[in-house]
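Milestone M4 deliverable, item 7.
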Amino acid sequence: MIHILREKIVANLNRKFEAEIGTHATNIEILLEQGVGVAEHPDIMATIEEELNIIANFEDKRAVLNKYFGEKTNEN
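Output delivered:
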């Protein structure tokens, strides 16, 4: 039972991180394709860099989650 719950939690966190990465990657695509910013973000370069930082954060979280808490292998 605990093993199943563990797998569900890890899978849900992976899905959450993937969704966040997708959201922020889409934001970057829109900025790159449209070439316009929004009033709160007049500096497109800085806005893209902020989005990249967010993506990197979620990529790091996903990597750590899977390295330490993903499927058990001989390495874990």
